[in-house]
Amino acid sequence: MNVTGLRVALFSGNYNYVRDGANQALNRFVGYMLRQGATVRVYSPTVSDPAFEPTGELVSAPSFAVPGRKEYRVPYRLSAGLRRDLKAFAPNLVHVASPDPLCHRAISWARRRNVPVVASVHTRFETYPRYYGLAFLEPLVLSMLRRFYRRCDAIVAPSESMAQLLRDQRMSYDVGIWTRGIDRDIFNPERRDLSWRRSMGIEDDAPVIGFIGRLVMEKGLDVFSDTVDRLTARQVRHRVLVVGEGPAREWFQNRLPGAIFTGFQMGADLGRAVASMDMLFNPSVTETFGNVTLEAMACALPTVAARATGSESLVTEGVTGRLIRPGAIEDFADALQTYCVEEDVRLRAGQAARLRAERNGWDQVNQALVDTYLRIIRQRSHGLSPRSSPVP
């Protein structure tokens, strides 16, 4: 079989109703698959006013709003209508992109019909409880994730560091890589715009520390704020530029009254905002890859990041940026201070980051997932069942 013989049923908890790095990657992948001649059908919750138009055919799945986070929805069942649709579609591979009830049921549906399943890992869900005072639940969440992923033929992670963590956590016997690409037309150093910076009230020679991403507490907003406080206390000259939107924006603005908040940006506007920063500060430990880190690197920015999955596969310590122990406020401040004060060090790291980012082209990374699909189908055709949990 080649790519034109693929009939993929893709299940996702969020395909297009809220924009994030994970569903942007999924939509790009579906577009790539369709261009290659594959057939894809997507099953996900839908809303009346999604963040963007979906790529490919999207079938709405029954869902409910997450309590306290109503912008997100949980698809809770594989309804009779979805089962009829799946039967008519007759996929030869099922791809699940989130460990929710719908994807659990999709795996069960596939196993009963001897259809192989591939799962993609986009978020470190086991780390989320610690941001809501429920860290004691992490072992339980890990156990639930292990049960979910072990029912799949293979799983793919967006970085080698995340893949190794999944192996260490015994999530699967077959862990591959589906990394992320970069749009170099949007993210490049030429997008830097001093006139735009001035319109934001930023002086030409002021070092700008950037934050890019959805404004939610699990992105490390508390660590970011505490670190900026330390720089201010040290009288290190800097400005803070925050690009993104989310439910924690009011909290973040109150913590950083001197910061500039652009709100949500996309396309050329996002590229301009990123390239107009001088460094990226990414203290989050929840990412499995870190799309924003790659985008900043492509714009020739050094990154100060938490030493965590994703960042460890992108940032080379002391070369393209700094990797700091998660939550180490003073160490984060030391690293940022160096880039704020020593321009030559900052520029040298930024150029090294740009060269590193050039490895990631979208077509190459998406073909790697297609190759995984074809390998798993070939293994099944030879009678090889997945080495996984016997849970039905």
Automatic annotation (TrEMBL):
Listed GO MF terms: glycosyltransferase activity
EC number, UniProt record: 2.4.-.-
Enzyme class: transferase
Recorded superkingdom: Bacteria
Domain Glycosyltransferase subfamily 4-like N-terminal: 20-185
Keywords tagged on the record: Glycosyltransferase, Transferase
Pfam families assigned: Glyco_trans_1_4, Glyco_transf_4
The protein, known as: Glycosyltransferase family 4 protein
Naturally occurring in which organism (per UniProt): Sphingobium olei
